[in-house]
Task: structure prediction
Amino acid sequence: MHFFTHTACLEHDTGTAHAERPARLEAVTTALRLAFPQVAWFDAPRATRGQLLRVHDDGLLRLVLDTPVRTSIALDPDTVLSPGSAEAALRAAGAGVAAVDAVIITAQQGEPGLPRAFCAVRPPGHHATPSVAMGFCLFNSIAVAAAHALEAHGLSRVAIVDFDVHHGNGTQAIFDGDARVLYLSSHQMPLYPDTGYANERGVGNIVNAPLRLGSGGEAFRAAWAQTLLPVIDSFRPQLLLVSAGFDAHRLDPLAQLQLEASDYAWLTAELVALANRHARGRVVSMLEGGYDLTALRECSVAHVRGLME
Result:
C-alpha cells in the first residue's frame, strides 16, 4: 500500500470561509498516519504538461499555471486561484500518475505490499472538464491518472468509480466518448452540477445512479449492488480508480445524503474484491470532496482500511 501527498497541497488558499480548505487535508493525513503508522508516505511529483494535455486543453493549462496571481482570483463563485494553487494542482494530478505507476509496477514485478494506493491531495478534481476549472477543481486528477494508465502503460480497460455526493461531470465529459474507460457514479440529485442523469450513457461506458435527497446507506448499497458493481464485473477492468469523496456522509454541510463510514467500508470491500478478480488487485483512490472534518477522518480511515484488507 502506498500513500501519496505533498505539502504544496496545503498552500492552495481558497479563503477563510471556503468549504474546500487546507484543514480538510490535514484532517485526512493526520488520521491516516495515526491509524496506519506502518504505511510509507511518498511526496507527489508534479504532473507534466504532457500528462495534463492528455485530458485538458492548453488554454486551461495556461490559465491555471501561467496566470500571475498576487492574492487570489475567483474563476467562478466556487473556484479560486491563489499564489499556491498552480503547484498544488500539479502535485495533486502528479500524485495520481505516480500512484498508477506504483500499483502497476507492484503487481507486475511481484514486489512486496498490496498494489493499492491512496492519494491525499487537494484541490479535488472531478468537476474539471477538458477546458473549464469549476466546482473547487482546477485539473481533473483522476482523469489524468486514467489517461496515464492508458497511454503510458497500454491498458485497454480502466474503470473509474465515483462515490462523491456530487456528480463528476468533468470526468464524464472527458471520457464519455472513450470506450476504454468505464465511468460509474452514485450521487445526490438534484444537486450541483445538475448532471449525472441515468440516461447519460456516453458510448455505453457511462453509468449513473442518482440518489434522492435523504437517501441513506440502504439506498446507496442497493444502487451499487444492483446497478453499478455488476457493470464493473462485466467490464473486467485492468485497473480500478476511485474518486473518493466523503461528502455523502450524514454530517456533511453541502449535501443531504445520510451515509455512515460503514457504508464506505462496505463499498470499498466490494471494489477490492472486483479488483482482485479482474485487475490483479490494482486500485488507486484519490480524495475528492468531504467538508466535515469528523466525517473526513472517520471515512478516510474506513476506506483505506478496506483497501488494505
